[in-house]
Amino acid sequence: MLYLSELGMYKMGKKSYLITENYLIGAGEETFILLSAGGRWEGNKIAIDYGGVFPLNADGFIMIPWLSLTIPFGRN
Structure pTM? Predict the structure, then answer.
């Protein structure tokens, strides 16, 4: 089984980032490629990630959306 990953994050502004996370997965005769693109906004104590995942081996264009919210727990 072959598994490769690439992660990138580029600062676009004071509180925003362009993010990508890509995977190449080989299983026997099959190879799957997953590309993702999205953004991140950071506030004082929270972060919001949004974007989509694009499987390249699919028939036609497919995008799987994602949205996540990060809130820290505990004291600083």
Answer: 0.72
- Name 16's bridge partners: 41
Cα–Cα distances (Å) from 5 to 2, 16, 20, in that order, read 10, 23, 11
Burial of residue 65 (number of CB atoms within 10 Å: 0-12, 13-18, 19+): exposed
Q: Which residues pair with 47 in a beta bridge?
A: 42, 70
Q: Residue 18: which of 49, 54, 46, 43 has the closest Cα? A: 49
Q: What is the pLDDT along the chain (76 residues), one digit of tens a residue?
A: 667 777 899 999 999 999 998 888 888 888 888 899 999 999 988 999 999 999 887 788 889 999 999 998 887 6
